[in-house]
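Let us practice reading a record.
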Amino acid sequence: MNFRNEQRQWLKIRTKKIENSNNSEGGNPGTGGRSDANIEIITYQKFTKGRLIEFARMHDNMD
């Protein structure tokens, strides 16, 4: 898989993770409001940080 397709796939997964971040273990949506927005932001940050670490590892292996 080339990098562009891999990145597009990652973006789709990230979007779904963020959309589902407020769901309970049973899959029910959260109550809404500020706390749900905070959970989405935290999920976005964690998921993106993980991707940045992957990029750093890829870069290190290029040499």
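A brief commentary: The chain has two helices and no strands.
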